[in-house]
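Problem statement: downstream parser choked on a complex file, so we are re-checking the raw output for the shikimate-3-phosphate run. The parser issue turned out to be on our end (a line-ending mismatch), but while we're here, posting the original submission so the record is complete.
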Amino acid sequence: MTSEAERLTLVLVGPMAAGKTSIGRRVARRLGVPFVDTDKRVAAEHGPIPAIFAEHGEARFREWERAAVATALDEDGVISLGGGAVTDADTRALLQRHPVVFLTVTPEAVADRIAGTGRPLLDGEDPLSRWRSIFEERRAWYDEVATTTFDTSRRPMQRIAEDIASWRRELR
Ligand code: S3P
């Protein structure tokens, strides 16, 4: 049996468009482990996220997301969570025994990244101010689960991924 200490898991959390998926994929490649995006897992099983929100509501999405997080944590690898996964207390509890990187980003840097990306919670007028207030509402939860924080606003994703991979290697 593999002990918890020998397994390589690394979880990425943070607000929408912080770069969790693009950085996560690069970190996984550097560490030579699989990459899992829990949004993709949920969508593969239950259909597109906007349709889930529209037809079943956010609460049901959080349940399916929590199940996807639990399954992913049982596998080795780098796991990117959707921005709102930390709003669920049971999902936060699942993260307790794993290294968690909180990716931060400034509103200035995120503005171009969120345009027309089909995120249901940013639908409507002024997506940037919605993004800001959602981030502020959740910031304490990100801090609660985070082992460390990296900012993704200015440096190339590639460089940030290298730093995160080095940080994770040193934890072994
Ligand atoms: C959400 C973020 C999305 C996705 C869903 C809800 C959120 O993931 O899980 O649209 O509540 O912040 P990204 O953070 O990858 O955009």
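For whoever reads this later: The CA atoms of residues 10 and 168 lie 7 Å apart.
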